[in-house]
Amino acid sequence: MTARTVNGIWKFHHQIGIVFMMLLLLALSACGAGEAIVEKGIGEVVDRTVGEGTMATVESASTRIVEAAATQQVAHDTDGDGQISEAEQEAILNAPGGMPTNPLDLTLGVVAEDNAMQGTFGRHYRASLPAGAITTLQMTNLGDPDLYITVSNLPYGVDLPETVGGGKTVEATFIVGDETDLLVSVLTILGQADFELLVSAENQDDAATGGDGGTRDEPTNIDPATGLAGLFGGDDDEDAFRIRVLAASYSEVTVTNTAENNDPIYFFVETTDGYYNESSAILPGNSATLVTADAVEHFTTIVVRGEDSGGAYMMDVVVSAENDADSGGDVSDIQSQAHSVAAGATIVGTSIAGDTDCYRATLGEGASVEISAPAEQPYEVSASLNIYTANGDYQNSGSADYGGTTAVEVGEAGEYVLCVNASNYYPYSAYELNLAP
Ligand SMILES: [Ca+2]
Ligand SMILES: [Ca+2]
Ligand SMILES: [Ca+2]
Q1: Ligand 1 mean position, distance from CA 280 (Å)
Q2: In this structure, which residues have their CB less than 5 angstroms from ion ligand 1?
Q3: How remote is the CA of residue 364 from the centroid of ligand 3, in Å?
Q4: pLDDT reported for residue 190
Q5: Distance 112 CA to ligand 3 centre (A)
Q6: Domains in the chain and their CATH numbers?
Q7: Is residue 233 within 8 Å of 180, Cβ to Cβ?
Q8: pTM over cut 0.85
Q9: Is the pLDDT of residue 105 over 80?
Q10: Chain mean position to CA 254
């Protein structure tokens, strides 16, 4: 056995490696050195693995290993001289699937049927997973003795039982982050067994993109929609999307943590012109909403972050255009271009950061104008109203707190200009004006 080979085994798995190498030596020497060496080796194997193997276990295992070794001799004594030469040992080690360093390629979604004793007391497979794949790994022990399964490059936090009893199946589902080569080894220690190994992978469908959501630097473009779903797992703990928001429009992004674990997620939004806002930690079953808006067209990036242990979320992305007083857009900020409305009207409008909305109305003597800041908004915004006479003289003002209404009266009957400002600290604010007849 070469130093390279020994290193490969030891790197592979220190505990199983001890047993694995010992059994390998046993098998290769069994035909020449006889049963005594095998039994001595078996005793050591049992001591090292289970600590207190019974004699029955040892005898049973001994018989199986001698049988298996005989099979190996037939299979690998290629020149038929009754000995396993060094070259023949190398041939066994270099056979595909014989060593962790020389795994068989496992086709995703196709069951591999194999025997754990074939070759070198272990079968080694490589499954090449695409980035972000939702992966299911399944191994069924079709025989009687325990089989050992070890998987290298598993995402953090994925636990697999080490031992799979006769007739039992082990299964795990997890998400990988980047492209990943899983190295799956099925080992036998005492006896041999047929097994079936299946690794299947399906794409995530984060926010209906057909794949894993992108990264903050390379977000995946999506269209606004409600009921979008996404997943985290392993190295995939960040999904990022980008939406286009037209001028005088605002986006509302609501993220709900739908994970079955207890881990929080959070998200943030940022726009191409530098606006940034983030949620606090969202615990499972809870939601948070963030808004972006601008007077000019822009892109908003939505970055949802979870934990390595995995998570799931739902996302609603709604982009709305301003429609002040059903005008189909934003009404003018300028008093002389105020939007005409009728006395008695109820006006619903939106003020996007820094926006002023001016309305013109003819009101009766002592009429009052009610300004409200509706409570059904992501932020606790207020709204303020300034009233001017038709020729621009300041007349009166008032402001409404979040969820509140304030009445502001005018003097004599006549034409007035009513200008509304909502909170400038937030991307957008909704307001309502009620004009008394
Ligand atoms: Ca994802
Ligand atoms: Ca407006
Ligand atoms: Ca305006």
Answers
A1: 20
A2: 204, 206, 212-213, 231, 236, 239
A3: 25
A4: 66
A5: 66
A6: 3-202 (2.60.120.380), 206-321 (2.60.120.380), 324-435 (2.60.120.380)
A7: no
A8: no
A9: yes
A10: 17
